């Protein structure tokens, strides 16, 4: 994703950052059922009702009364955001001291060639201490807490949510008198847990059955040639539409002239009227021409 460094006391470790996880969901697109054409969305201004080019789109913060605060790139560039290329280690804590509810995203850290030794030093020191490092990092114009730990002999950074981003459970039943649990019931629940307990977690024995079934449905349709190739809009079709519009415009123009032609007389006044009538359709057509 980017090249940066881990700041560990007076030691700086140049690293390269990679996403440690990927989404394996089957990507489905919204299409027109009758012909398979993809559904497209455009950026429209809700006030002007026109499509807005990406270069004119800014970020906005909506107030409670509906007023909008527009923030430009210049406004955001002036914020005191920490360098997006430094993972600044702040302290070390036991891993079990952190509730997994605070975890967000995971990234692998690869050392650059000149920094393998300090990288290995931090890795081995973390393993020996059985602690994780708490750090600050800026990713995608947002500052986050993060932790560094060792996984599969490499350093892994996990971004964390800020404390006020973790919601507190506010459920009514917690304030009520809870039902009493009998010792026999607790013993049976413990026995069930013991019967399903494994010494280690083996994620490979679990599979995504829904994704596998969906892929099988797609493969069956492909094998049965039950697919649709959406028709592409060609330049030729645009020309046809343009010609049709021009022909319709010419037809309308001819119709608008016919009443004026019938009123034309032999006198000079009617000749003046003819001139006026000939100018009026041109005035009405000028916005279309523009």
Automatic annotation (TrEMBL):
GO BP annotations, alphabetical order: DNA recombination; double-strand break repair via nonhomologous end joining
Pfam families hit by this protein: Ku
Keyword DNA damage: yes
All copies of domain Ku, residue ranges: 49-177
Molecular function as annotated in GO: double-stranded DNA binding
Purpose: With LigD forms a non-homologous end joining (NHEJ) DNA repair enzyme, which repairs dsDNA breaks with reduced fidelity. Binds linear dsDNA with 5'- and 3'- overhangs but not closed circular dsDNA nor ssDNA. Recruits and stimulates the ligase activity of LigD.
HAMAP family linked: Prokaryotic_Ku (MF_01875)
Name of the protein: Non-homologous end joining protein Ku
Chain's gene name: ku
